[in-house]
Every structure is written in structure tokens, then in C-alpha cells.
Amino acid sequence: MYVNEKWCLGCHLCEYNCAFAESGLSDMVKALKGRAIRPRIRVEERGNVHYAVSCRHCGDPVCVKGCLTGALAVKDGAVTVDRKRCVGCLTCVALCPYGAISPSEDGPMQKCELCLETAAGTPACAAGCPNGAIVYEER
Amino acid sequence: MPINYILPEFEVRRDYDRCICCRVCERQCANLVHRYDEDAGKMLSDESKCVDCQRCVTLCPTRALKILKNENSFRENGNWSARTMTEIYRQADTGGVLLSSMGNPSEMPVYWDRILINASQVTNPSIDPLREPMETRTYLGAHPSEMRRDAEGRLITSLPPHLELDVPIMFSAMSYGSISYNAHESLARAAAELGTFYNTGEGGLHEDFYKYGPNTIVQVASGRFGVHKAYLEAGAAIEIKMGQGAKPGIGGHLPGKKIVGDISRTRMIPEGSDAISPAPHHDIYSIEDLRQLVYSLKAATEYKKPVIVKIAAVHNIAAIASGVARSGADIIAIDGFRGGTGAAPSRIRDNVGIPIELALAAVDQRLRDEGIRDRVSLVAGGSIRSSADAVKAIALGADAVYIGTAALLALGCHLCRSCHAGKCNWGIATQEPELAKRLNPDIGYARLVNLVTAWNREIKEMMGGMGINSIEALRGNRLMLRGVGLTEKELEVLGIKHAGE
Amino acid sequence: MTEMKYLIVGDSAAGVGCIEGIRAADRGGEVTVVSAEARGCYSRPLISYRLSGKVDDAGMSFRGEDFFRENGVTLLEGREAVRLDPEGRSLMLKDGGVLPYDRLLWAAGSSPAVPPIPGLERVTNRTPFHSWDDEERLEAMLTPGARVLILGGGLVGIKCAEALTKKDVRVCVAEGLPRILAAVLDDEAAAMAQAHMERAGVAFRVGDAVASFDESRAVFRSGAEEKFGVLVLAAGVRPNISVLKTAGAACSRGVLIDAAGRTSLPGVWAAGDCAEGTDCSTGKSAVMALWPNARLQGEAAGRSMAGAEAGFSDAIPVNATSVLGFPFATAGAQEGESRVLRGRGAYKRLFYGGGRLTGYIMAGDAAKAGIYTALIRRREPLDGLDLSLVCAEPSLLAFTAQRRDELLNHVETEAV
Amino acid sequence: MLREGENGNRIPSGCAISGIFSRDGERISGEKVMRSIELMHDRSNGLGGGFAGYGIYPEYRELYALHIFYNDRAAKDDCEKFLEEHFDIADQAKMPVQRNPRITDVPLIWRYFVEPLHTKLAESQLDADEYVARCVIRVNSELAGAYIFSSGKDMGVFKAVGFPEDVGRFYGLEGYSGYCWTAHGRYPTNTPGWWGGAHPFALLDFSVVHNGEISSYDANRRTIEMYGYKCGLLTDTEVMTYIVDYLVRRKGLTLTEMASVMAAPFWSTIEGMPEDERERHAYLRRVFPGLLVTGPFSILLGFSGGIMALNDRLKLRSLVAAEKGRTVYFASEESAIRVVEPSPDRVWSPGGGEPVIFTLDKGASSCR
Predict the structure, then answer these.
(1) Do D226 and B374 touch (CB under 8 A)?
(2) Residue ranges per structural domain of chain B
(3) Among A124, B236, D58, D214, which is least packed, fewest CB within 10 Å?
(4) pLDDT confidence of B207, banded at 50, 70, 90?
(5) Is any Cβ of chain D less than 8 angstroms from the Cβ of B125?
(6) B138-142+164-471: what CATH class?
(7) pLDDT, tens digit, for every residue of C100-134?
(8) Do domains C120-233 and C325-408 have the same CATH topology?
């Protein structure tokens, strides 16, 4: 997953598409209406600078190495979190250089898992990006 | 405070059951129509600012938005439409000339829609473009008047400079300044991939785009902006702009606030100074002057590049074109009155010029009557909206067509006709970096390539249906056309028969 | 060439890291692991979570049970190393066994310290809180309503106290130093943490050391007394380095290692709680008895042992956890110039010097702390950055657009 | 009766064609080609048949032979007045015909052997051929009721409304002999047909018989009319004859070059050619785009001293060729060849766009 700030419009659609995809529901209104979303991708912005940040799925992920429980692991290239193992110790939060891991509503850590469970193929954020600022491709 | 006579043209209809307050609409509207109200905890809108560009509607992830015509109705009558009345109020407010953008929106006849295309039955087989070769390659340029042979009697095959098009469709002139850098990049890259040409318009050529030179037509207009030797040499052809269909007889005016950075450098005028293109070229007051400019440009480029003369479709277009054909021009581009523009006085746009269909038919026939049709190529522009329009134009006698508005639509334009405001929400007709970045050329160029590729497929289908497998055999083949609901006179000018004849 | 014989003492974070390091470079070599414990490899920091019931036995292991088999490792459990012969390249075990090796990693970790307090020996219901065994021992001692006194307000003591709030017992934490979590937090952050725990019913006696014990009573310097049914010893640890010392390895608090984990003895590497390396945030040598460091040091040592280019030059202490829902994270040095920001129940202190971020404390909110950690680790010069933005919140906004492009729009392979 | 060209309706038609050419100049009786075309009776519908014979007027070989239809005496008088003003008329006579019940609505048919008036020719500053061509076009487009349907030297076109075999007998072609014959049986798709509209269509000594319906018609017509031609009949044959005349006589292209304009190879084919060939084809396509003929056609082009057969580039119409000794045969159907030459040495089907050209052997005189 690559983010090209040059084309990011700061529309925040990626955050909503992420939250929608995570909900597993078929209708975005039903999924998100009246809720504060906790997306796994976040748009950081200031003035005219915007860009989205989510897990970069590092080749040599320090979060996985630092994980006390083995909840974080690399599964065919994607860094995934096993909610059952995670005890929410925050070690990964203190290690991730992108700030891409955060506690979920109910404790265990949440992070971008490339929609492997939810959306087949392209992750929802990239698929929904109106300006090709988020691309999902082999490089 | 005085009465505001200008009522909102549109109504923003938001379905609050669907709205999830993601605020995309707010973030994407450069006209500041939408805003989130903390206290009310919902989105509100100021419709008076809405130009119906559909950006918010298109990006709303829950399809919660609709932009509707304001149902509020003036006491209209056959003579006084709401539009006419509002225009009067606006001028009474400002005392100014009404400005507008894009093509003539008024209810003038669209002859393309009154012309039907033929197909083979029985006596002549239609040809399946999926099985048989179907040629749309087109060459634009002059033709030699006599054959020459060498000592052994072999033909000497040297030709005047030609443009080679893989598809009979080119992107018409849109200047850098009137449209964004990203729009230009999209057009340039698409032209290169499609094997056709785009046109710099009168704004000069940005240094980054010299590499697309082999697919670029560089324009020389009355303002002479950005014209220098390297510029002329960079292009594959040079176009002299005598007129533009959207505003025949007047020049152009790009306000100083748009002349910033790259644009001022590319146009070679100081930042902030208005870019004014005079109505006439001040060195062309008649046809012999045009001939001089044509040959000056040819000489400046060592006779290596065809010269196009672009003229607006006006009443005596046939005679004008005949003159231009004899002026040394290799290609004549005719721009019809429905052609687009970045900004034009509304009255001019809506009341000056004639339809491209009639102009094209008249010019082609006139050049044939004078036996000089094959001295020049004809390019028709001014609202070619589909492959069918293109096929009809070619059958009427065009060698190729120019598309401008259609190309912009492919890039996202929704014809809100507010280009002159410079706040294009689609990142096309704007120079504000925040808006311009909304058009990612990687996406834009691919959409242009798709559009033209699709049109070319359809053109081949139609040709095959007519039993024609080469575009030359369609060119000027008016028997392939029939009119419906047209008067004798219209049919006569178009040089076609009525359906059923 | 004949296959390399690797010998690893210790099967915790550093040991496992070492195995992964070796295997990354050498699939063939023969790897043997000796462990004094007989629990397989488990995650020591999880004992408090097991105590609270959040983690079951299966959850204790941080690698699959097949880990050793999959990596072709011979595991010798419950065997203690007693003597090292660096010249002869062999290791004697308590049970008399002798293990030859070509390359050895010493990752024996540490043992709980036993403070020299009169009467301690008379306390029958006492246990350290350092190993799985300790945790089970403690659990066995607990009776409904029992009073538990935890000696030591460091991370171990605090996590133990957190766990005990899930049990039907009364908990008191005794810390001789003026604040809890002294090694990690500063006064203000520590006070916030303490207050938070007190609201959850944990009692504290801070800045008052225990003078003496009898069976079920602690008497403090101040004269105050505290009754207890169970005593937990959480007063720090000692690196297990005696064997290396006697073998002649250079030691300070821990055995000294370079970036690749080499000790002064030929063919001997060390990693984890027993090792002392350079803290790149201070440039000083220190024992960083922390899980992630152990893991990373172990891996670096493993690679180096297998002859691959390796180095873990940017070790820094990183602490993060949440106690009863109160999150905090710290990293690097806590010295030099600093800036403090407060707000919304959160406290943040950033340390900087030499034009770089050198350390931070985040309490009450640890979100995106890793961005600061990376700034420290990568020794990112601050002059390229917008300092006010850096302080405001951890985000990539502080970077230049070009640096961000490198970070977000290019293939990312190495994040450490 | 409705006639070709009236009310501007174009007349496409299907058809049968046949041709015989003797390379050594041996004279062949018209009867032979009549038998050949007759076999393809069902390919025509009685609305037109015709023949062109070459080498049939050896006694007047230096004179232009004009065959003219007249609606009535008045037309004849006008036309003859015109002819006298422009030509020396060496001989003029009613065309000999044998009445035939199946040939009706017979117009007045006259034959003239002429040469341009030297004075007129001189002041026109044209060569004789161009002078004659212009006169023919003028008569056909301006003199109501008169139609010159044959105007070459030592050749003649004979055509009428009816089945070709009847037309042949009507003109008594068994009595003529020449080194080359072409024949046509017509199947016009939407008019009764008119005598002048029948094939062959001829200008000077070019004559064309054609089977097909070209889809490029109006593109070709509007192009060729730029050069002074008037397509009065609006038939394919007419426009193709004019194209041939323009390219060969006026532009000086060889027949092969002319073929690569009318039935130009596809660009993809051209790109595969060796350089000089590629350049020649590309050049001709780019110089004469308006004269590319698409849609189905198979034509036999008669000219003095030779014959050429050409198919459209996709070969959408049948055309078979055969050889026996020095004699060459062409026909829409092989059977139409075998009926006159049961055992040819070689039978083949010319490829699309590939011209097949035969000319008289060196030394072979066109009248032996």
C-alpha cells in the first residue's frame, strides 16, 4: 500500500471506507450513521497538506518483533493481529514508526490488515480513493 | 441593504436519513455551499453559492445528496424566460457584460441529431470489424498537384508534411491557464498513447510538456503568448487561431489573477498582468496578410510542419475557407458555434456564429466546386459529442474532428459553465493548487484514452455496417447520410437526401 | 565445511531472537538451547496477565509450540549451566553434562533481587514475581480477603498489583523511592498513575522503605506498620552473569557487549537482561532489561554468530503498557532539556538535546508514541522538522513533504 | 421511363461479367463471349446487357467511333449539329440491328467515325483524347435525349435493356470479331434500367464491366467530379471508369499503380512490404485517398491493346481467370469459361486487390 500525498484531497473517504469495510455490513448508512468511526487508516492534515497513514506492512516489522504475546505476526506479507492473543500492552504502539497501531474499542490492538478478511482484492481505502492517492500494488 | 434579485438556481436536497456527516461535501466544495453545524450536529448548505458541478453528489459515499433545479418559478412567458429575466436583474445589479463558459446552451437545432447513417443490406455485405481489418488511420495535410517520376520512371514519393492520426479524433485547443497543468498533462499523455494530437491553445507550451512535442499542435493566436522559435519547433504542426466558435469576432481575456508562476513564464508575460488576446491579429487585416503569416511560420520551421488555420463558423464561411485554402494553409479547422470556451461574453457565445454541420458541408462542397478540396484537409470542431457525430462529420466531408468539451467531460467536467470563476471543483479549469490536484493525470489520461478508444471502436462498427473498411471511403460520402425533419434548404446545404429518398 | 555448533543458554526473548537470527542466515547449523526452567519458551511479562486470568497457559507461549522443532533446535530444559570453558569451547552443566560449541549465546536473563531486610527470612508466605513458577506459587498463597504487600513499585510490582485487583484480596504497594515506576516515569506522570490505581482500590506507601519484617508485618522507617498475609518481592533484578564473570568476560552491571552482541570472550555472545550494551539515546552503556530489546539483541547476536553482517546499534529503552486502563509509554533518556504538554487527562514530556529528540514520557495517552520512538532511534535531526508540530502530537506532519514521500510512498523494508 | 441519373438516385446493381482476350492478337468472334455470358443468365434479370469489343473497326482504327442513343429525331439533329461543329465525320450510319421481341423500347442508335476538327482542337489547346472526352461528357450531360455510350478508337460498346445474349444477337455481334471482348449481364437492384445505364460503361477506349456494389461511391464521385467529370448515371461503373481515365490517362499512372489506388492494400500490409514498394503504396494512398474504392467489386477493364481484371481488396465478389495457349478468359463463374474453353491450361482466382493485366504480345498487331 502506497500513499502519494501529491494527490491526496483530504476528503477523508478512506477513513469512512475503512470503517465501513471493518463493519462487515452491506450498507454504509447502517454501518456508520450516528457513530464515531475508528478507522485503521488516518488522514493527517494541516493547511493544504493532507495524506493518509496506515500500516506499511514493513518487511522487517519492529512491532512484530516487540510483541510480547506473538499476537502480531506476518501472514503472507501482511502484518496481522490476533485479537485473542493480544493483551493490549501497548508495546507495539510505542514501537510503530508510523503510529499505525491503536487500541480498538474493546481493548485489543487494531491496525490495517489490508482488508484480507473483509474486502477481497483491493483494500477498501485504496479502492475508494477518488484520486489515486492511495494505491495497492506490488513494487 | 438592497434587494437581491438573483435567486438560487439550484436546491441542495440532502437526505438526512442517509447523511453520515462525513463532511466530504464540505471539504470538496470550493464554493463553500456545505458546512457542518456542531450544535445542530448536521450538515447545512447555502444554495445561493451552488453551481451544480455535482462534485459533492458524486463523492458522497452514501448518495445522500441531490442537486435540483430550484422549483421556484418566475411568471415566465414565451417571450420572457426566467433566464432572460435573471440576466436583466444581474446586469441591473452590476452594469457589466454577462460572462459565461463552455458551449452555447440555447435551444438551437443540433443537425447531427437530424442526420441518420446508412447500413448495408443484401446487395453489399456489411463488414465485421472484429474479423476484417478496419482502417481509421488518417493523414492531414496538403496533396501534391502533379506526379513526378525519376529517370527510371519511378514515382518520386516525397510529400508535403502530414500529420498521421491513428484515430480521426484530436483534442482541440485549450490553453494552459484556462485549464490546469494536470489537465494539460492528461491530454498530452493521452494524445501520445492514442497516436493523435492535442493542442496547446494560445497559452504557450509548459517546459515539462516539450517531450510530448510529436503529438502536440502548437497554436499561434492574436496574443502571441508563449510563441518563440523553440515553441514552434517543438510541435508537430502549427495552428494559427483566427477565430473560435464560442466567440467569433472577439479576442480572449485571461484575468491577471490567473497569470501566476508557471503560467506567466509559459505565456511570457509578467505575473498578475491580464492576458489579452486582441479580436483580430494585428498583423492580419486580410487574406494576403494571413498568407504571409502562414509562410513566415513555414519558413521559421523549414517547411517541415503543416500549418493549420482555425476559423470560426460564420455566415460566409465557405468563401473564407476557400480563401484560406489558397493562402498556403495545409489544414483548415472550422469551429462551430456550439464550441466551448473558458470564458466568453454570453451574448456573443449565444448569438454569434453558425452550426458546424452547415458550415462544414458548405465548406467541403465549395472547395470541391473549386477543385481545391484535396489541397487541404478539413478538421471540424464545435461540439462533437459522440462517435456518431464524428462519423457524420467525416461523411459530410471532414478529414478529422476536434473534441474539447467531450474530452473535459471525460476528465470529470459536469458542464456547470463556471470556468470563468476559476474555482473548478474538478481541478480542470482552475489554477488553485488545492483544486488542480484533484485531477490526477494518471487517472485523467487513462479516461481520455478509454473515451477515444471506445469512440474509435464505434466508428469502426458503423463503418463496417456501411460496408466501408477504410476511413477515406467514408470521407465526404454523403450518400451514407439521410436527413429527418429537415427543410429542402437545410438538406440542400448539407448536401444530403431526406430519409426515404 | 563442517556444520557450525551453536549453543544458546536461555530460551526466552533473547534466546528465541537468537534462533531466528541464526536461521535467517544459516539453515544447516546445529542449534542447542539450554534452559534452567522447564516451561518451554514463554513470555515472562505475561505472568501478571495469567494471574489476572486474561491469559491462559496456551497464551503464555509467544511462539507456536512447534517453534523449536520447526527451527531444528534441540531443547535441553531444566538444566543449569555452571561453568564455561571459552578456550575449550565447552559448557559444563550442573548435572555434570558437558556441551561443546563453536559459538555460544549467553541469554540467561536475570534473577529477582532479595533485599537485605532484617526478618525477611521469617516471612513464610513470600515469593518473588519473576517467573511462571513464581506466579503459580503466588496464586496458591492467595486466600479470600488476604492482604497482599508488594515490595517494590517498579513495573513488575505495579503489573502484579494490577493483576491482584482482579482477585478477592487487598493490595498495598510499598516503594522506598519517592515515586512509583521511578525508572520509567517522572514525578508528575508517576503521581497520575498512582492516583489512577488508588481510585481502583490499590493502596500505596511511597517514599518510605521497609525497615524490618516479622512473619506478617512490615515495619517502615517512618515507624508505620503494614500487616500482610502474602509478601511479593518485586525489588528489582540481578543479571545472571556469574558464570561469564568467572570465565573472564568483561562485565559491569551486566556482561558487556558490542552492537553485534559479542562479549570480550572469543566465540561468546550475550543478549537480553544479562547483557549491557550502548543506549543510543544517551550514548552510555546500560542494561536495558526490556522485552523488545532482548528480542532484537538476540536476533542481532544470532545473525552475527552465523557470520552474517549484523548490528543492533540503535538500542534504546522503550517502555509501554497500560495499568488498569491508564496508558503510558516512554523511551530513550530522561535527561537534558525538556518540554511539557498537558491536556485532556494526558501528560507529555519530551527530552531533547544535540538537535535531536532523546526521550519522552507520555502518560494518560500513548497514541502514536512509536513516531517519537522512531525519531529517537533514527536520530532524526530536528532542524529538518517543525518542533512545535513534533511536540503538539506525534505525526508525520513534522517531516518535510519529501521525507514523508520516502516514508509513505516507497517500499518499506526496515523499520527498526 | 425512369432512367439512370434522373432524380439523382444512385443505381447499385449485382451482375455477371465475362471477358476473353487473345494475347497474340487473333480475332475472336463476338459469338464466343455471348455463349459465355449466356451461361450466367440467372445472374442478370433482363434489365441490361452489353459488350465491348476491341480491334473490331480495323478499317477506321485511327478514328474515334461514337455510338449514340437518341430518344428522338430532334435529339439526333441537335447532337449531329454539335458533332459537325466539333468533328470531321468520316462516316456515319444507323447502327445495324436485328429486331428481337425481347428487346423493346429501342431508341435510335447511330454510329459515327470521327476525328476532332483541327481548328477547334488547336484553339482548345487540348490533346485529342481530352478534347473528345470533354465533348462526350458535354453531350451526355447537356444534350437532352442524346447519349454517347461508346467513344474509343477501334473499339465499340454494344448495350441495351434485356438479357445479354439477346442484346448480343440484337447487335449481331456474331458478325464482329476482335482480339478482346468483355460482356455484362445486369441485375440492377432498384430501377427498370435504361439503355445507357447498361454496361459496359466507356469513355474513350476505356470500358468497364463491373459486378458489385461499392460502398465508397459518393466519396469517389465527389472526388472525381472535382476534376471535370460529371457522373450523370450515378452508377458504380461510371465512376470507376472515370477514376481509371483520370489516374491513367490524366495522371499518367501505370495500370498497376492505378490498381494500388483503387484497391489499395491495408496499411498493415503496406508496412510489411520492402521499402520502395512500401513507399510507393503509402504515397499513392496518401495522394489519392478519395479514389480508394471499398465494398464489393470485380471489374474487367478493357483498353486498347489489353485487358485488366481487378477485385476489391477483400475479394467480396467472385472472379475467375483462365488461360489456354495465348488466350485469356475471365468470368464471374468458372463454368462460364469452361463452356467456351472446356480444357484450359490454367484456372485461378485472382486475389483481392491484385490486378491481373494482359496486353498484346510484342509485334502482335491489333488487326490481323
Answers:
(1) yes
(2) 10-96, 138-142+164-471
(3) D58
(4) very high
(5) yes
(6) alpha beta
(7) 999 999 999 999 999 999 999 999 999 999 999 99
(8) no
Q: Does B have 3 or more CB contacts under 8 Å with C?
A: no
Specify the pLDDT at position C378.
87
What's the rounded Cα separation, in Å, for the pair B351 and A125?
Answer: 48
User: Which residue in the set D225, D292, D314 is minimally distant from B472, CB to CB?
Assistant: D292
Grid cell of B25 as nine digits = 461535501
> Is the peptide bond between D200 and the residue preceding it cis, with omega within 30 degrees of 0?
yes
Contact B472 D266 (CB under 8 A): no
Which of C109-123, C255-269, D8-22, D178-192 is the least confident region? D8-22
**Paired strand residues for C91:** C84, C99
Name the minimum distance, in Å, from the CA of A50 to any CA of chain B. Answer: 10
CATH class of A62-110: alpha beta
Q: How far apart are CA C57 and CA C148, in angstroms?
A: 24
10 Å CB burial of residue B484 (0-12, 13-18, 19+) is exposed
CA–CA–CA angle B90, B91, B94 (5° rounding):
90
On the question of pLDDT at C403 being above 90, the answer is no
CA D121 to chain centre: 26
Confidence of residue D287 (pLDDT cuts 50, 70, 90): very high
Nearest Cα to Cα of residue C174 among C206, C146, C215: C206
Cα-flanking dihedrals φ and ψ of residue B256, to 5°?
Answer: -55, -30
Distances (CA, A) of D82 to B215, C351, D72, D121: 57, 114, 16, 14
Please name the fold of domain C120-233.
FAD/NAD(P)-binding domain (3.50.50)
Residue that wins the pLDDT comparison between A10 and C279: A10
Which subunits sit against A, judged by 3+ Cβ pairs under 8 A? B, C
Q: Which H or E run includes B229?
A: helix B229-234
The CATH homologous superfamily of the domain defined by C5-111+237-305: FAD/NAD(P)-binding domain (3.50.50.60)
Compute the nearest-CA separation of A118 from chain C (Å): 23
pLDDT of residue B39 exceeding 50, the answer is: yes
Q: C-alpha grid cell for residue B92?
A: 441591473
pLDDT value, residue D14: 61
Specify the CATH number for B10-96; select among 3.30.70.20, 3.40.50.300, 3.30.470.20, 3.40.50.2300: 3.30.70.20
Most D CBs within 10 A among B123, B396, B481, hence the mutation to make, goes to B123
Residue C205 to chain A, least CA–CA distance (Å)? 26
Judge: A94–C366 Cβ closer than 8 Å, yes or no: yes
As given in the structure block, the three cell numbers for residue A111 are 491496525
Q: Give the whole-angstrom CA distance, residue B220 versus residue B238.
A: 7
User: How far out from the chain centre does Cα C147 lie?
Assistant: 28
pLDDT single digits (tens) D140-191: 999 999 999 999 999 999 999 999 999 999 999 999 999 999 999 988 765 5
Over pLDDT 90: what percentage of chain B?
Answer: 88
> Which residue bears the cell 511539557?
C340
Nearest CA in chain D to B398: D219
Instruction: Tell me the catalytic residues of D.
Output: 15
Name the fold adopted by C325-408: Enolase-like; domain 1 (3.30.390)
Going along chain D from its start, the domains and CATH numbers come out as 6-359 (3.60.20.10)
- Mind listing the pLDDT tens digit for each residue in B220-260? 999 999 999 999 999 999 999 999 999 999 988 888 888 88
Between helix B181-194 and helix B441-465 the angle, nearest 10°, is 40
Please give the mean pLDDT across all residues of chain C: 91
Residue D318, C-alpha cell as written in the block: 467472385
Task: Check whether D47 has a pLDDT greater than 90.
Answer: no
Secondary structure of B208-226 in HEC code, one letter for each residue: HHHHHHHHEEEEECCCCCC
Domain boundaries of chain A, sorted by first residue: 2-54+124-135, 62-110
